[in-house]
Design brief:
The chain is of the alpha/beta class. It is 38% helix and 17% strand. The strands form 3 sheets. It has an 8-stranded parallel beta barrel with strand order 3-4-5-8-9-10-11-12, surrounded by 6 helices. Helix 4 (126-142) links the parallel strand 8 (113-118) and strand 9 (146-153). 49% of the residues are buried. The structure holds nicotinamide-adenine-dinucleotide.
Length: 319
């Protein structure tokens, strides 16, 4: 396993991170015992970075991850979030930030969080995020309760403007913006993160399961033509005895700057498959074919959060 610094935070992350939203049943019922085994296997193999949130399974992901990390807490960088509590429930106020951290510590059965992130900032008021939410996180960092602070979300320009307005953050987490369907992260966030030496997390490299043989879950927000093209890409790989998820992970892991590629997992087999991509030589011909197939829908964005914070050209979810 290789490790990279999360910007100037002093945290070192494994270049594959373990996304724990599937532990909250976000992609269908997860078997708890198998999820725990997956976490243990990941740690054994050198994965040191685990990401969860109160929102994932409304506390369930944190609870399951907490159980799995018993006895292993010192071996991992643990990240969770504040601000989002349900599909349409948000609270970015300072008192809720502090209360949320206490709740997360309890569910995760730990006394400290390494990386505390504001979850899906495009759903909050920018002014409040910058003048109230992030200062509350900074206070927690200054007092030693968390080691690093960050923002997460989907619209790239919005992430960048909030990062510019609050330069004390250590990192930015962007999702579904760097994989074989979308590379817009590199147009907007990567140059900025590099210039400021900020940590950069590339989450959802499998485009929230669209780029797998199994395909996207029903709730996937991408435009229908994107889901269709992803299905065709999976079929193309299968016809050649290859696995689309593997190809995508290889592509994502070659990113020169990203601190960690954060992939959601809940079985030992998935951890094995994703780790194996670190060793593989990329099938260049197939990669070219898949990129050509996906080119008509490349960088097709959907809307998230407040309309005014979305990137130009984003279309309504699932349209
Ligand atoms: P993802 O693209 O990582 O896909 C996860 C899905 O793919 C799950 O159903 C998983 O079971 C499946 N999978 C994993 N490896 C596979 C493999 N090798 N073959 C086939 N299927 C495989 O999407 P994600 O889980 O949404 O994103 C990763 C993590 O990033 C999340 O779990 C979460 O921790 C974080 N995240 C954060 C935000 C945010 O803060 N706003 C948004 C999205 C994701």
């Amino acid at each position: 396993m290789q490790y990279r610094s999360l910007g100037k935070s002093g945290l070192e992350l494994s270049i594959i991170g373990f996304g724990a939203s599937p532990l909250g049943n976000e992609f269908g019922e997860a078997d708890e015992k198998e999820s725990v085994r997956a976490v243990h296997y990941a740690i054994e193999q050198g994965i040191s970075y685990f990401d969860t949130a109160p929102y994932y399974g409304r506390g369930l992901s944190e609870e399951r991850l907490g159980k799995a990390l018993k006895g292993f807490r010192d071996k991992v960088i643990l990240a969770t979030k504040v601000g989002r509590y349900d599909k349409n429930t948000f609270d970015f106020s300072a008192p809720r930030v502090r209360q949320s951290l206490e709740e997360s510590l309890r569910r995760l059965e730990t006394d400290r969080i390494d990386l505390l992130q504001v979850h899906d900032i495009e759903f909050g008021d920018r002014e409040q995020i910058v003048s109230e939410t992030l200062p509350a996180l900074l206070e927690l960092k200054t007092s030693g309760q968390v080691r690093a602070i960050s923002i997460t979300g989907y619209p790239l320009h919005h992430l960048k403007t909030v990062a510019e307005a609050f330069p004390e953050i250590d990192a930015i987490l962007s999702y579904c913006h760097y994989n074989l369907l979308d590379t817009a992260m590199d147009d907007v966030l990567t140059p900025y993160a590099q210039e400021k030496a900020l940590g950069l997390i590339n989450a959802s490299p499998l485009h929230m399961r669209a780029l797998t043989q199994q395909g996207a879950p029903d709730w996937h927000p991408a435009p229908k033509k994107v889901i269709q093209k992803a299905r065709e890409a999976a079929a193309l790989c299968q016809a050649q005895g290859a696995d689309l998820a593997r190809l995508v992970m290889q592509f994502a892991l070659q990113h020169p700057y990203v601190s960690s590629t954060l992939v959601g997992m809940n079985t030992v087999e998935q951890v094995k498959q994703n780790l194996a991509t670190l060793e593989d030589a990329t099938h260049q011909e197939l990669l070219k074919e898949v990129k050509t197939l996906l080119a008509p829908v490349h960088n097709s964005h959907w809307t998230e959060g407040r309309p005014e914070y979305n990137d130009p050209g984003a279309v309504p979810k699932g349209s």
